[in-house]
Specification:
Layout (H helix, E strand, L loop, with lengths): L1 H10 L1 H20 L7 H21 L3 H12 L5 H28 L8 H36 L1 H13 L1 H5 L3 H16 L1 H20 L7 H20 L8
The structure holds 2-acetamido-2-deoxy-beta-D-glucopyranose.
2-acetamido-2-deoxy-beta-D-glucopyranose (NAG) binds next to helix 5 and helix 6.
Amino acid sequence: MVDAFIKLTSQSQGRDRVFRATQYACALSVYLLRNNTERKDLVAKLKSLENNMSAGRKLFRLGNAANSIEAAKRTMQLSDRVLCLCLTAANINRTLYFICDNVLWARGVGLIRNIDKERWSLNSSRWYFLSLLMNLTRDVYVLTQLMARRAKERRFKQRMDQHLSENPEVAEVVIPQLDAFLFLLWETLKSNPAVGLDTLKNVCDLFIPLDKLGIYHSSAGVVGFCGLVSSLIGIVTLTHPTLRIKP
Ligand SMILES: *[C@@H]1O[C@H](CO)[C@@H](O)[C@H](O)[C@H]1NC(C)=O
């Protein structure tokens, strides 16, 4: 029963990502058209579509808290201590985020009344933010490990020497350590696109709660753009599982 339920909601992941991409594409278009007086009708339609997407996603997300608890149970078994800690914490924070999200949904449809919407909304953003931070910590950890491994490869050392001899001005003028670091980072990302995509996705997502929590105010355009990019990456990783970071 629980399994079937979890399977159903994980299949709905694809739908959620398409809805999310639409939601942020609308937000971005509304921002770009904000000064266009002739397009007032279109802007109103886009705003309503954006709100509908957001409300629809909240309904489909009802089962996600159970999903995240299952995910937390799985990540608790990981043998790598850092991965285990980061991902379990991320999943617990995500569960709390979904609970807030469900409460907000229930209030939106009038099932419950006497709750402070603003406070629950802030809490929801806070848990989401923490979950993202944990995910980003995981990305940085995985990336540094991959870079350390790569730096030891003989083939990499040869390419590095070649890179430096082809760009002698870099080795002399610009800080050589920084150049070496960036070269190593670039080579590592190129051969592990899944890590790069996940990092980019998490960084893009970060702008949304940062703005909501008032930690860093970006424009509605930036939030719309970053949300759209991260949703598109989400769709790509769903259709191309090799580009999805594991575990
Ligand atoms: C954190 O990463 C996990 C596993 O990759 C993912 O399921 C989850 O959605 C991510 N959390 C957020 C807030 O994006």
